[in-house]
Amino acid sequence: MRQPTSIRKRLFYQLAAVAAVLSLAFVLVVRGVASQAAEGTQDDILAASATAIADSLSSEQGEVTLELPYSALSMLGTINEDRVFYRVTVNNETLTGYADLPVTNAPTRLDTPAFSTEIYRGDEVRLTSILRRVSNSATGSKVVVTVAQTRSGLAAITQRITVTATGVGLLFFLLATTLSLLAATSALRPLSRMTGAVTRRGPSDLRPVTEDTPAELAPLVGALNSFMARLRSSLTRTEDLITEAAHRVRTPLATVRTQAEVTHRKLNKPEHKQAIRDMIRAIDESSRSAGQILDHAMVTFRADSLALDPLDLAALITETCDRLAPTADLKDIALLRKLPDGPVPFKGDGIMLQAALHNILDNAIKYSPEDSDITVRIEVNSALHLSITDQGRGFGDMDFESLTTRYARGANVGDVVGSGLGLTIADEVARAHGGRLELSHNKEGQGACVSLILPYV
Amino acid sequence: MRYLLIEDNLKLAGAVVERLQLDGHAVDHADRLDAATACMDVADYDLILLDIMLPDGDGRDFLQRQRRAEKRTPVIVITARSAVSDRISLLDLGADDYITKPFDFAELEARCRAVLRRQGGAADNQKTFEGTILNLTTGELQFGDSSTNLRNRELRLLEVFFAAPGQVFSKSHLIDRMFSFSDEASENAIEVYVARLRKRLEGSGARIETVRGLGYRMIAA
Known about the structure:
Chain B: Residues 2-116 form the Response regulatory domain. The complex is a heterodimer of chains A (457) and B (221). Chain A is an alpha+beta fold and 457 residues long.
């Protein structure tokens, strides 16, 4: 698999590479300049020394003589412990000094020092030779003064400078790398801010991104926003289509169901009656599922921009219970309300809470046996506990967690019609309000207890 | 009871009318709002069943006009919209209740009864047999000085007997009248409810008799 590229890493690596190249160049240049300067200094001293020796040449009775000036050699001795060699030749005959000192760079012009680097007695030496013409008798003698010095001092200086330069270069590299890391991070901060703003959103929050964005990101944000607008309009269209389809189907379904009821009444044979009964159940099932799917879509939609309206939970419960009482009445089920006296103020989305309550109660009625009680309670402590307890078949051994997943149904639902969305809707409503749905067993006997736990905002 | 059904889908309307007539109700049908208004001018209805989408207008406007005109005939809206927000707005407009298509007639009847009870109307919606009075709206059973309130299923069962005293009803017919289609009912359940009714009727002029092999009937005690 290809690793995703990171702009931050790339930016950092590129900046670091540039810093490395610059550091290396710095070290090389400093070393080059330094060793050149050191060489130049040695050459100057060598030339001065050779010149001083040459200046001490004199001519006596046609013979070239030399009074070797001590200073000429001592000025060379200042550098480290380098050894110094010299040689003076008169017409290619060694006058004094080391006779085997090579003079490969015999100068051709007078008083102009010539330089070369040789290996002498196992060491690298720097040589300077100058040519003098010492006049005696008729012809002048050609005198070559050669001074040589080993280069260990020079190497030491060069090395010292190299070490220092490398240190400085390394320091520069580290500093530049750190700065480039900071720069890469700070340059990408608007991007991560924007990413955060988009990531923190709910799954269907499709409002445009309004965070401040740098000019470079504006086209991206623009493209993102226009994409989200298109997605939103397409979602809205789909939602409208689903709602519309659900509505269109309901009237013919109602016709079929009513005719089926009439037919059922007129038929006598049990097997015919059973067939009609099955048909009616199938119609009820599809109608109920359609309703719950729409409720679920509505809850998901509203959860993203949760309305926090002040409302009275007690009134909301009373209203929903009143609404469902005739349905419960059909099975002689009593909806008991244990509510505190007076209003229970709460801030939330009334429509969502009603959908949650309606679905929980509808479930409870469906799974309750005839002649039983369903109790709706509100308990107020640090949070609001809204619990609905029935005397039905309960949750059995089902995993409570899995019951709130979409389309999951209990293992003991038997023949009861259902889509498995009821508790999911309630769970999502609770979570949208920062609360949770709690499933437990009825503590006072058989049955289930579903609680919405809603924290005060 | 007398219903006015306002519904433009003729197939559905026909089926609803037939279904309500099976339970012994009188039903007039109007397929447009102007026809509905005409009906209301000449007759008094106990209840109006109102569809929302009609060819000559919105049922909600009709509802509002009714409420502004202080006409208190209860209205139950038959809606194809199941969303909570749609339901809430219907109640705000003055509907007494609503029912979502497709609907169960037992539930519709239960809702009608609840609406009428709330309104305190239809006090005369009662049947008498041998001095025993059964109020079909409130489920109140009266004889002599005693008065009890029947539960829903008891009422639905006794209603059948009161509609045709002396007639024998088979267990399966009684099951159809008493249980919803989602309930799994057995013939034993009927025996349980008949036993309860017998207890309720103790001391009254009516009693329920078992007709071996055929079913039950209500006769004078």
